[in-house]
Amino acid sequence: MQLLTLLMVLLAVASCSTYKLHLEANVGELFTYKIEPQLFNWTHQVISEQFRYRPSLQHYPDLPSWMRYMYSHEYHAGFLYGTPPGTAAGKSLHLDLVALNRQNYETRQMVISLFVAHKFITPNVVQMKIDNLNWVHLMDPGRVENLRNIFRKDLWPSSKEDLSVVFMESAINMGGRLPLRPQQREGVIVHVGSFAQFSPRLKELQEEVRPLYKLPSCTYKRTSVQKIFENVGFKLDWCAFKMVGMESPTEVLYHNNHASGRPKEQLKEHHQQQQQHQRSEEERWLGIPREDVPMRNYIDEFAFAFAIPGMILAVLVGILSAVLCFQHQKFYDPYSELFFENIFYICEESCARTPSDSEDDNDSSLHIDYPMSSTVQMVQCSDTKPMQPVTTLKSLKDPNFLLDNTSMRSQSPNNSLYQLDTGGSGIYARPKPPPYKGGTLGRNGVDI
Predict the structure, then answer these.
(1) Phi-psi region of 61 (alpha: psi -120 to 50; beta: other; left: phi over 0)
(2) For the segment 243-264, what is each residue's pLDDT rounded down to a tens digit?
(3) Contacts of 228 (CB under 8 A, 6+ apart)
(4) Which of 32-36, 290-294, 390-394 has the lowest mean pLDDT?
(5) Long-range contacts of range 2-9, CB-CB < 8 Å, 24 or more positions apart?
(6) What is the pairing mode between strands 106-117 and 18-26?
């Protein structure tokens, strides 16, 4: 049993080899390191995604807060990058880096010792966003050197001695959106800094792009220095081009050029005091007086809310009035006019009765009662030809109306259809109404 345990320990030690590596980083300056298979003595790569790496702080599951690890499928390698803060100055960090060969599941381990050196943080920084690159492309020292040369030779000549990249991150990790096409670049945000004062050309460039700060993105904008960046392979988003900093103290500039006689501790203390004073000024909140508070104008809002709907309503009413007043002749219907002109003649024909109907009515008893409280009803009857109008109107309350009712019913024609005298031939227009017969008196009136 002991022999088997010893054999397993030897196999574990043989399969997991440990190496040590010493690196150095500066405060306020971008630190990058590429992790490749050659770092673990793996000289060949069978498949493109054969190796995987997992870095972490020694005895902890994650990395320091200022450090980030990302794997690039384009370069088939991992990258450690980040900017050490001032609190990490003078300290050593130990990172455990574990590599896995996915072909035979061989595991190797490496310990990285990273020392963070003291350095004054650059107060003057230029922030920009490069749209045609990914974060991994700025891991190439050649591209970083080309970017620095643009500022050192053309835009910021006074920063030639100490210009450095102080920050770099993917635009996606900073809150940007993925491109619509996967072939497009995600974009990378880069900050370069120096102790030198901003050049007049940089200040003119900032004033040129200042109106674009309110826009989220403006890749269409062209500036006076557009060609300088495009000739080296950089396409900038000028909405994200900003200059942040303050006038650097002379002592710090003189010390940075290694020509100052002041002690380093005194310069460090002076710089820390300036940083604390600046931080306190930024954190302090200054209120505004009451008279400077903007007042809301309700009159303009009500006018805007009612004026536009009122104008639209007035226009619609005007259009409708014009249609009804000036276009009324188009609503003329000759057939309707003919019907209303002949409606009295139709009522006259309905009152005419045939003799046969009057004889049948004489045999039956006629008993009609009319309500006295009802309104006066006028009936127009004719004793002459059917088509001749008469002007005699008789009331239903008239006692002589009952006597005339017999003669009215006797003149009803026998045919079910009546004829109109329009020339020599008769035309049947519509069926005649049924003859009037006596009814009984109900509670609500005469039932006919």
Answers:
(1) alpha
(2) 998 654 433 443 344 333 444 4
(3) 150, 154, 155
(4) 390-394
(5) none
(6) parallel
> DSSP code of 350?
H
Average pLDDT along the chain: 75
Closest alpha carbon to 446 in 393, 379, 363: 379
Question: Max CA-CA distance within the chain?
Answer: 149
- Measure the CA–CA gap between 97 and 435, rounded to whole angstroms: 116
Residue found by looking up tokens 């900003």 in the block: 242
Backbone torsions φ then ψ of 422, nearest 5 degrees: -120, 80
**Strands of the 18-26 sheet, one edge to the other:** 18-26, 106-117, 92-101, 51-57
CA distance 42 to 236: 39
**Torsion (CA) 306, 312, 315, 319 in degrees, nearest 10:** -140
Phi and psi (nearest 5°) for 195?
A: -85, -15
% of the chain beyond a pLDDT of 70: 63
Q: Are 59 and 100 in contact (CB under 8 A)?
A: no
Token output for 1: 């049993």
pLDDT digits (tens, 9 = 90+) for 71-125: 998 888 999 999 999 899 999 999 999 999 888 889 999 999 999 999 888 999 9
In this structure, the number of other CB atoms found within 10 A of the CB of residue 92 comes to 11
- 130: which 2 tokens? 């490069």
10 Å Cβ neighbour count for 81?
21
Cα separation, 354 vs 368, in Å, equals 21
Residue of 274, 204, 276, 207 whose CA lies nearest to 246: 274
Secondary structure class of 420 (helix, strand, coil): strand
**136 neighbors 223 (Cβ within 8 angstroms):** no
Name the nearest CA neighbour of 434 among 343, 357, 355.
357
* 321 has pLDDT over 80: yes
Q: Is residue 17's pLDDT more than 80? A: no
β-strand partners of 109: 18, 98
